[in-house]
Write a structure and sequence with these properties.
The structure is a homotrimer.
Chain A: E1 2-8, H1 9-16, E2 19-22, E3 27-31, E4 41-45, H2 48-55, E5 61-64, E6 75-78, H3 82-93, E7 108-109, E8 114-115, E9 120-121, E10 126-127, E11 132-133, E12 138-139, E13 144-145, E14 150-151, E15 156-159, E16 164-166, E17 174-176, E18 182-185, E19 190-191, E20 196-198, E21 204-207, E22 212-213, E23 218-219, E24 224-225, E25 230-231, E26 236-237, E27 242-243, E28 248-249, E29 254-255, E30 260-261, E31 266-267, E32 272-273, E33 282-284, E34 289-290, H4 291-302, H5 304-314
Parallel strand pairs in A: 3-4, 4-5, 5-6, 7-10, 8-11, 9-12, 10-13, 11-14, 12-15, 13-18, 14-19, 15-20, 18-21, 19-22, 20-23, 21-24, 22-25, 23-26, 24-27, 25-28, 26-29, 27-30, 28-31, 29-32, 31-33
Antiparallel strand pairs in A: 1-3, 2-6, 16-17, 33-34
């Protein structure tokens, strides 16, 4: 997320009660998780093993739980609990804005777009032209929707990322990461009934142009779905997964987080994708393999009794 | 779908800009996909390998992308893009009717039926007697519901079929098939919370009398579910599947499209049914096998190390 | 369920048309299924093989379909169809109360709690302090929610248990068990979008303090989920399952009914849990095994061709 206007690092240091180390004069222009961070951004790190990655990322301001040497041109904000400090900043610059009507006054809705009854459209939402939104759809704040988009009933766009930090020593163990990312639905997308597409933690969850989703599909926070993909019903996609263009996922496929499915891959029903797979191939199984490999395996399993017989005959 | 009144084939030819071949005098009484087509209907075909099937189907009017010999008593409408012509006709005779209130004035609701707050009831919907519809349910236009039906919160009846024609040469590759079928819920059915039952493309999706669906169930376009079936939560049924009476599907079962599950079959949890299976048996696995066969296989897999030991001992 | 005030067993006998055997003077204080029954409760039994279990349970009043010897201090109510008699009592003491507004006048909503537009809050619902309920959520009657709870859009709390008695001889075969249990969401819980948590049949479905549920999760009737659990998207939990504290279930995991998952167990994505598993371990597969056992099996399957080669070489 980018701030509406730049904020001085000294103000941030005071706001979160951190010790400022390094350049005290610069301005922060946004806040992002480490994998989304850009120049000008605040990010955070609280595990020593990730210190180097964060200190040498594009981040300009780093909230950190130990005073280390500050790289040139950066600012460290040293505090005992960087996660909580980060969340405090997110909440300050993207506060929850309670709604009291179904369609926010700050929403922009394009010409030719029709909303069926009882669609919730949150604050700062933008919907393009010639869209059709069916009843009982919920569109959280800051969602952006292109032109010619169809969204079926009961679908939810922009719910919070499922992202928590565990504090095993506490009675209530999970601290919530507050999301400030958005959902972006590009033009010519159709989304079935009862789907859920979560917002990114700090970046955007994107559904690429011309992609079609069947019913009951879950898209995790920050996932980026390419153009002209086809996902059948009850598919689930983990957070930050990247699905390239023209991927076809059949029903009930599950895709883990933080991976890439290459362009044009086809994954058969009920498969589970635990890590990246190449494009242009056909996959099956949980965990997936290339479909023909998996089919051969299923055949080999059926031949185990034959193997047994051969062996015991030789005894 | 049947038209409210018959339409001359010449009018249709002009409307879609097609060349009329064969009988120019007859009237079209409806429009249907090839597998649902009846006498009097318009249908379409755009692959040479399906020409014969379509030309010799019950269809009276055939939209086709090549001028071929017209069977006696039929009319061909020759046009470069039969799919788009078919969709144009569907949209003309079953136009989307935007709603501006939660319960349409054209809906009929039977005696003793209670709608909880915020149920959307579309145009031309018929609901029988003594039903109970819980909050935030969406019932699309033309849905028909029998007597004594219970529908839990958040369920969606009648969303569009997930059916697209791919045009790989275009930037936006998928063309939407516009659905004109309906959802029919017979009497004494109970549908759980957060279910989605799609309308048929041109025919009807049917849930048979006395069938009970748990939560989060997806029923694809044109599926026909028999009487007294029991589906546990998160089951997904593909388009045009036929599930005969008294079938029991346990949780998270996935059923592919265009198949038959025979009467009284029982399918264990998380199984995947890729093609037709006989009734009266118990199944398990993805892909399914008879449960006892699958159980034996699972046992054989555990014995592979024993096999290995026997073999290497013989070495 | 406990009654608001005790009811004489004679009144109950007359109400359901049963023959009273045993103590005719005592008072019934509640009604419960056999596995939830407490002193003072009415319960029912209609299979001879369960007679002893029910007669010697904590139940004070037993609806039974055969006149048997009455244990001391108990009352039998003998009737041909105990299931229907039980349902008749439940409906009498927990009648469905039709709603005509989105937020019931009998609901109690705590300080600092914010409901986004179009949340349905049923009768006798209690919501604690500082909760945030997103749009289009449905909260059925009698649900209880603690403090600091977040519920995302489209979620449904308290739909009916999926519990039917089959009468194969009838045309409409399934008789509905009417639920009188509740859903209880403890403090500091977060529930994702499009989830469904069913009420218990006579007891309570409980989500323990600090537990976090992702989207599209189904929790069956009477399940008891511990504290600080983490369930990823599209998980399904069967009725009356007990999930102890700090259990982690990854996406699309299915859990059968009537079992226990021990404290701190971790179950990998798409696994199926058919029966109880110990805590503190990591599981995978459908049906699940310990993850390292399952991984070894998957490796052994890949070695079957090697086995085959060894054997045929020996031929």
């Amino acid at each position: 997320m980018k701030f509406e206007q730049a904020v001085s690092v000294q103000w941030i240091a005071d706001f979160i009660g951190a010790k400022l180390v390094g350049d005290a004069e610069q301005m922060a222009t946004g806040i992002n998780e480490i994998h989304k961070v850009q120049k000008g951004d605040i990010s955070f790190v609280d595990f020593e093993k990730y210190y180097n990655k964060c200190l040498h990322s594009a981040a300009t301001v780093i909230i950190i739980n130990k005073e280390v040497e500050c790289p040139a041109g950066k600012t460290l904000l040293v505090t005992a609990d960087p996660f909580s400090a980060y969340v405090k900043i997110v909440k300050r610059f993207r506060p929850f804005e309670p709604a009291n009507k179904m369609i926010s006054d700050t929403a922009e809705i394009g010409e030719g777009t029709h909303l069926q009854p009882n669609v919730f459209v949150g604050n700062h939402v933008k919907i393009g032209k010639n869209c059709l939104i069916h009843p009982n759809v919920t569109i959280y704040d800051h969602t952006i929707i292109g032109d010619n988009v169809i969204i079926h009933a009961g679908t939810v766009l922009g719910a919070d990322a499922f992202y928590f930090k565990r504090r095993k020593e506490r009675e209530v163990q999970y601290d919530k990461m507050v999301s400030c990312g958005r959902v972006i639905i590009e033009s010519d997308v159709e989304i079935g009934a009862g789907c859920t597409i979560d917002k990114g933690v700090s970046g955007d969850t994107i559904i690429g142009q011309g992609t079609k989703l069947d019913n009951h599909i879950h898209i995790g926070h920050g996932a980026v779905i390419g153009k002209n993909c086809l996902f059948a019903a009850q598919v689930g996609i983990g957070g930050k997964a990247i699905i390239e263009d023209e991927v076809i996922l059949w029903g009930q496929v599950g895709v883990s987080k933080d991976l890439v499915i290459g362009k044009g891959a086809i994954v058969y029903a009920q498969s589970g994708v635990p890590s990246s797979i190449e494009g242009g191939k056909v996959y099956f199984g949980s965990p997936v393999e290339e479909a023909r490999t998996k089919m051969k395996e299923l055949n080999w399993i059926k031949r185990i009794p034959e193997l047994w017989e051969k062996i015991t005959k030789n005894d």
